[in-house]
Amino acid sequence: MQKESVYACMTNAEKEVATLLKNLGIQWSFEQPVFVWDENKRPRVWASNFYLINF
Question: Residue 13: enclosing H or E segment and its boundaries?
Fold first, then answer.
């Protein structure tokens, strides 16, 4: 079974950002969950559209 491309679930605007990041040589992950603490020190899982791996 072939895995679906990450681009298949992106909007056109997200595809443009992905292309720009690729052209700039910036590694990214799409909708990668990240563990964070909110302003009240509560744990949260947040998934932004683009997680910039080296930043």
Answer: helix 12-23
pLDDT tens column, 31-41: 888 889 999 99
pTM as predicted: 0.70
Helix, strand, coil percent values for the chain (each to nearest 5): 30, 25, 45
Instruction: Report the C-alpha dihedral over residues 31, 55, 22, 13, rounded to 10 degrees.
Output: 50
47 exposed, middle or buried (CB, 10 Å; 0-12, 13-18, 19+)? exposed
Residue located via tokens 């990450």: 6
Which whole number is the average pLDDT over 12-24? 96
Q: What is the largest CA-CA distance in the chain?
A: 44
